[in-house]
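Lab notebook, bench 4. Still working through the backlog of constructs that have no structural model yet. Next entry is a single chain of 261 residues. Request: give me the structure tokens for it.
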Amino acid sequence: MQNTEYYDKIDTVEVFILRAPLGKAKFWSSQSSFPERNSLLVKITSGDTHGWGEAGQYGPPEPVAAAIEHVLAKRIIGKSVQPTVVSEELYAFSRDFGQRGTYVEAISGIDVALWDLLGKKLGVPVCKLLGGAFRTRVKVYATGCYYRHDCQDPATIDIKESVQACAEEAKSFKDAGFRAVKIKVGLLSVEDDLKRVAAVREAIGADMKLMVDANHAYSVPTAVHLAKEMEKYKVSWFEEPVVPEDIEGYRRVQSKTIIPI
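Model written out:
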């Protein structure tokens, strides 16, 4: 290795909020509308080398940016570029108030940036720093088929149009070479969302894998009802049918269906 001084110090920590307004391409999940796409980038510099991380993907990026900029960054300036050490120290610092959400996301963005930075300093890919690559290829799937409607009230969604748009989008993923697709449910009634599931299965054929994501839209009885109805469409998994805190609810849903939860 050319550079063994991997304990060089952290000089600066910067955050960048990116936004892309979607205009009429706004879409919905079961929980909310998405009028824009946003991201938070973290840049950490040591000498003439910098690493990039990403955070703030699951909500407004401003709280995560503030946690980094005003709380965490000053704790790591001057520290050695040691990702695991820094992450452990930051988590220990925030344990009493930040075990979930904003601070965990902020630490994650810093952690990714530090690994990128360390890999660049040593001139090796991060996978080697983590012990080596297990594979050179991975299976991927397309996520899409949101409710793509420029409206303020989901009650105004045209069901027929939604079903057709969902099927066409899923077919486009198949045409692009994907072998699996995950679609959204939960915004419409169970009956109307089943129409979307059925249309997608017909559009992609029997051999392409189909997964369904509800973004915790349902009660346990409703999730069980939907799962049983989806079994005939060869759904490979049913993601987040109920709220994530309801562990017993997940067990109950799983016990009533052959679809993996």
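Notes after review: The mean pLDDT is 92. The beta strands are 12-21, 27-28, 33-34, 36-46, 49-55, 142-143, 180-184, 209-213, 235-239. Flag for follow-up if needed.
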